[in-house]
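From the pipeline queue, job 12 of 40. The input is one protein chain; the requested action is below.

Action: predict structure.
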Amino acid sequence: MGEAPIDIVAKGFDAGIGPRDRAPADMIAVRVMGPMKVAVVGAPTYFARRRPPRTPEDLARHSCVQYRRAADGDVFAWPFKRNRKSRWISVDGQVMVNNTDLAVRAAVDGLAGCVHLA
């Protein structure tokens, strides 16, 4: 299990930077960067053997690189947004990483089919 979140108020900090979904309900959250565009990508060698996903639901039929957050140990669900509706898709796969560079390397090397990139 990951480390407990740091109480920045109790520690005397005036501000902290982190994902909005990790902020306590009583904390004021201010966006400090614009929205990021993401892509689901994979190695051409993988997709030579399998039909590429066309929808987020198609990911259930693929071996995806899973990403475990180092801070809390949670497995990252992939966010998708369309027509102002957001949803999170949990993926399966045989490769689990906690580093984005390793996630890219696993996809490029064809160890898994899909990876979620920002």
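Job complete. The chain has a mean pLDDT of 80.
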